[in-house]
Design the sequence.
C-alpha cells in the first residue's frame, strides 16, 4: 500500500513539474515581449541589474529575462516620505502622554480644564504653524535633501552686519502656498508640526490649575506663529546659529538633532515665563514662604502617560533625519532607550537617597528628563555616552524641581520647567561634550562631524552649543514675558480666586471632569419619585420624569 501511495505521489509531482515549466516558459515569453515593447529608460536614471543566479551559465542573465530597471532615486524618496510620516504619527502619541501625565499630577477638580488645554493646543498650534510658523521657520531652508524636492522654500530674510550675512527668518510657504504643497515639503511640515505641538504643550502643565482658558488660546497662537518658529529657524531652518561653524569656526554650528533646545528648552522657558507671571496656586506657599505639597490625584495615570511618551519619543528621535535608509536610526533608537532608562533609575535612586523613598512620579520625570536630554545628541553619541547623559539628567531634574520650588518660588505642578527647560539646556550642551565625531559630516555645511570635548574636540562645538542655549533664553524669555504681559492687560491671564478654589472644570469649561454624583435637580427628582411611588420597582405606567406626577 505504501508503494502504491508513493507511486501516486510521484505521478502528481511529475504533472506539477511539467505544468510549472510550461507556465514559466509562457511567463518568460510574455516578459520578453513586454521588455521589447517598453520604451528605453532615460540614461540619467540609475538602474539595478539582476545578476544571474548561482549555477547558471557564465555571467549572462537567463534567456528572456533581460535587465530589470528600477528608478532607485524615486524609490528612496518614497521610502523617506513614508518613513517620515510614520515617525510623525508615532510621535503624535506623545499627545496622549502629555495629557495623561499633566492631568494625573493635578487635582481632580481641574482635570477637564487641563485635558482641554492638551487637546486644544493641538488645534491652535497646528493651524498657527500652518498659517505662519512653518514659513518663518523653514521658508529659507531650501529643499530637504532626503526628499529630492524642488527648491520652493527659497526666501530668507537676512541682514549684513560686521561684514557677515546673518540669516534671521524665512518668508516662503505661508499657508503652505507658493509651491510648498509638494510631497517632501508636506511630509516635513507634518513632522515639524508635531514637534511644535510638543513645545507649545509644555506650559500647559507648568501653568495648570490657575490659567484662564481664553488666555491659553491667545498664547497658543503666539507660540506657534512667532516664539517657536523664530528660534527654530536659527537652528533648523538654515539660520545664523547653524552658521556659527562656517562663520566663526565653532564646531559645526549649533547642532540639535531632535530638539533638546529647539523644542524642549523653548517650551520650558515659555513655561517659566508664564508661571512667573501667573504666580503660585493659592495655598502653595505658607505665610513664611515654605512650600506646601499639593499632590496629584492619579499616579497610575501619570505612569501610563509616561510610557506613552517613551513610546512616541522613538518617533521623534529616529524620524528626525527624514531618512529611512540611514542605518544610524538603529543607534539613535538604542541611545534613546538607554538614556530614558538611565534617567528613570537615577531619579528614583536620588529621591531614595534624599527622602528615604523612591517617588514613582519623580521616576517618571526622570525618564522624561533622559528623553529630553538625549534628543539633541542621539545621533552623535555612543550608547555609553547616552546612558551617562540620561543618568545626569535624572539627577539634575530632581535637584532642579526642588530648587525651583524652594528657592525660585515658581509654582510648577508637573515639573515641566525642570524636565524640559533645564534638561533641554543640558541636552544641548551634551552635544559639545559627548559627540564622538563618527557621524554627521557636512552638518550645517561643515566637513567634519560634530565632536565633543571628551572626545578630543576641544571647546569649539561646546562653545557653539553654549551660544545656542544663551540665545534661546535671550529670545524666548523676553518675548514670552511680552506676550503674557499683553494678554494680561487685555483679557487677563489668571482665573478668579473663587474659580481656582472651587475648581476650574465648571467655571472655565462648563463640565465636570469626574462626576461622582447626580446633579441637584436629578437628586431632587429622585427624592420626589420615592415620596410619590415608593422604593419598589417602578410600574410600567410610572412617568419617566419621576417629578411627582400622579399615576393615572
Sequence:
Amino acid at each position: 500500500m505504501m508503494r502504491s501511495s508513493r507511486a501516486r505521489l510521484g505521478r502528481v509531482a511529475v504533472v506539477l513539474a511539467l505544468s510549472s515549466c510550461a507556465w514559466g516558459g509562457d511567463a518568460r515569453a510574455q516578459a520578453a515581449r513586454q521588455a521589447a515593447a517598453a520604451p528605453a529608460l532615460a540614461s540619467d536614471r540609475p538602474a539595478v541589474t539582476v545578476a544571474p543566479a548561482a549555477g547558471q551559465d557564465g555571467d549572462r542573465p537567463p534567456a528572456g529575462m533581460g535587465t530589470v530597471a528600477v528608478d532607485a532615486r524615486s524609490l528612496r524618496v518614497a521610502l523617506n516620505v513614508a518613513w517620515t510620516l510614520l515617525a510623525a504619527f508615532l510621535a503624535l502619541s506623545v499627545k496622549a502622554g502629555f495629557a495623561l501625565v499633566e492631568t494625573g499630577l493635578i487635582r481632580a477638580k481641574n482635570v477637564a480644564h487641563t485635558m482641554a488645554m492638551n487637546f486644544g493646543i493641538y488645534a491652535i498650534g497646528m493651524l498657527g504653524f500652518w498659517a505662519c510658523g512653518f514659513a518663518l521657520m523653514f521658508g529659507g531652508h531650501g529643499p530637504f535633501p532626503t526628499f529630492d524636492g524642488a527648491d520652493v522654500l527659497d526666501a530668507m530674510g537676512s541682514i549684513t552686519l560686521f561684514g557677515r550675512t546673518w540669516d534671521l527668518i524665512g518668508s516662503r510657504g505661508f499657508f503652505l502656498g507658493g509651491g510648498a504643497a509638494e510631497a517632501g515639503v508636506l511630509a516635513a511640515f507634518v513632522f515639524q508640526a508635531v514637534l511644535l505641538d510638543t513645545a507649545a504643550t509644555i506650559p500647559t502643565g507648568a501653568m495648570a490649575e490657575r490659567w484662564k482658558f481664553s488666555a491659553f488660546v491667545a498664547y497658543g497662537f503666539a507660540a506657534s506663529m512667532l516664539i517657536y518658529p523664530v528660534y527654530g529657524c536659527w537652528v533648523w531652518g538654515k539660520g545664523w546659529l547653524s552658521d556659527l561653524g562656517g562663520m566663526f569656526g565653532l564646531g559645526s554650528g549649533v547642532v540639535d538633532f531632535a530638539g533638546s533646545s529647539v523644542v524642549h528648552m523653548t517650551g520650558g522657558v515659555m513655561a517659566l515665563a508664564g508661571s512667573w507671571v501667573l504666580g503660585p496656586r493659592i495655598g502653595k506657599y505658607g505665610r513664611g514662604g515654605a512650600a506646601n505639597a499639593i499632590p496629584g490625584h492619579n499616579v497610575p495615570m501619570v505612569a501610563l502617560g509616561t510610557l506613552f511618551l517613551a513610546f512616541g519619543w522613538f518617533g521623534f528621535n529616529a524620524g528626525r533625519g527624514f531618512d529611512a535608509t540611514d542605518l544610524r536610526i538603529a543607534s539613535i533608537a538604542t541611545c534613546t532607550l538607554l538614556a530614558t532608562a538611565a534617567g528613570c533609575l537615577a531619579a528614583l535612586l536620588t529621591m531614595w537617597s534624599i527622602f528615604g523613598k523612591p517617588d514613582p512620579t519623580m521616576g517618571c520625570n526622570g525618564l522624561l528628563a533622559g528623553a529630553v536630554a538625549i534628543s539633541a545628541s542621539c545621533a552623535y553619541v555612543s550608547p555609553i555616552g547616552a546612558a551617562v547623559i540620561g543618568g545626569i539628567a535624572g539627577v539634575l531634574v530632581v535637584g532642579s524641581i526642588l530648587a525651583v520650588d524652594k528657592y525660585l518660588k515658581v509654582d510648577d505642578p508637573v515639573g515641566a520647567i525642570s524636565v524640559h527647560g533645564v534638561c533641554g539646556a543640558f541636552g544641548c550642551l551634551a552635544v559639545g561634550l559627548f559627540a564622538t565625531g563618527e557621524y554627521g559630516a557636512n552638518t550645517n555645511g561643515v566637513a567634519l562631524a560634530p565632536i565633543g570635548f571628551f572626545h578630543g574636540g576641544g571647546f569649539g562645538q561646546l562653545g557653539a552649543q553654549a551660544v545656542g542655549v544663551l540665545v534661546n533664553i535671550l529670545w524666548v524669555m523676553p518675548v514670552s514675558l511680552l506676550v503674557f504681559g499683553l494678554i494680561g492687560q487685555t483679557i487677563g491671564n489668571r482665573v478668579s480666586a473663587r474659580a481656582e478654589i472651587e475648581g476650574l472644570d465648571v467655571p472655565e469649561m462648563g463640565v465636570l471632569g469626574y462626576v461622582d454624583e447626580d446633579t441637584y435637580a436629578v437628586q431632587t427628582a429622585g427624592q420626589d419619585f420615592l415620596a410619590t411611588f415608593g422604593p419598589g420597582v417602578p410600574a410600567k405606567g410610572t412617568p419617566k420624569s419621576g417629578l411627582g406626577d400622579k399615576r393615572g
Observations:
- The chain is about 60% helix and 0% strand.
- The CA atoms of residues 174 and 223 lie 16 Å apart.
